[in-house]
Design brief:
This protein has 233 residues and is of the alpha/beta class. It is 32% helix and 15% strand. The strands form two sheets. The protein has a six-stranded parallel beta sheet with strand order 2-1-3-4-7-8, with helices on both faces. The chain has a two-stranded antiparallel sheet with strand order 5-6. This is Alpha/beta hydrolase.
Length: 233
């Protein structure tokens, strides 16, 4: 099966490097993506918008041929994947949302992070809660910051535009990381805006207790979750 891996903010395809081997060892074809504007520190991100990232994922789906794909998004990448599902609902067997939510029509991915000259740089670690940083020691945090790239501000601030309700027919695996499945279910039940799309989706919930970046902290366990989703997809 073709498995498309979409990183969250500040990360490129290399962020999946410890997950990909297990997927390929199981016989799948893994496609970790570096999204537009995320190729280097010096890339021009000023003209890169949300639709550019969505279109890049759609292009990856189209390049995989006629068989359905498994689409995996991390954090803000979940919203990007959800828009790609909206664009290609007949080509996605299942979506896996890791530590993030399927952003609905009119929503934004992460508009609260401060921007500088059209970029959203990785903020100071104090901007994150201790639960986000679980299993990342000082050395791991230093490596993360060294590899981190600014994300395009327009990507996180532009409004999501969705139009095909067949997106709700695509089953979803929601992977709870720095929060629990029980907490997520509570947010959904309360009608919280960031998770509202979940109320219309067929969702399997999986707990993977760690920080916000399981591809860095628990890559083998995340790979197993993705393989299970591929099997059920």
């Amino acid at each position: 099966m073709d498995i498309i891996l979409v990183p969250g903010l500040w990360l490129d395809a290399s962020s999946w490097e410890r997950v990909v081997p297990a997927l390929e060892a199981a016989g799948h074809r893994a496609h970790p993506l570096t999204l537009p504007g995320m190729g280097s520190e010096d890339a021009d991100r000023s003209g890169v918008g949300l639709r550019d990232h969505v279109d890049a994922v759609v292009a990856a789906i189209d390049a995989c041929g006629p068989a359905k794909v498994l689409l995996v998004g991390h954090s803000a990448g979940c919203g990007i994947c959800h828009a790609a599902v909206d664009a290609r609902p007949d080509r996605v067997a299942r979506a896996v949302y890791v530590g993030g939510f399927p952003t609905g029509d009119g929503g934004t991915l992460a508009e609260d992070f401060p921007a500088e000259d059209g970029d959203v740089p990785l903020p100071d670690w104090s901007a994150f809660g201790p639960e986000d940083l679980t299993d990342l020691d000082d050395e791991a945090l230093a490596r993360f910051r060294e590899r981190a790239l600014p994300s395009p501000a327009r990507v996180v601030r532009e409004r999501q535009r969705l139009s095909d309700e067949r997106r709700y027919d695509v089953p979803v695996t929601a992977v709870a990381t720095e929060y629990t499945t029980e907490t997520l279910r509570g947010w959904i039940a309360s009608g919280a805006e960031p998770v509202r799309e979940f109320t219309r989706l067929r969702v399997d919930h999986v707990d993977l207790p760690t920080g916000h970046w399981p591809q860095l902290t628990r890559p083998d366990d995340l790979a197993r979750v993705i393989l299970d989703a591929a099997a059920s997809g």
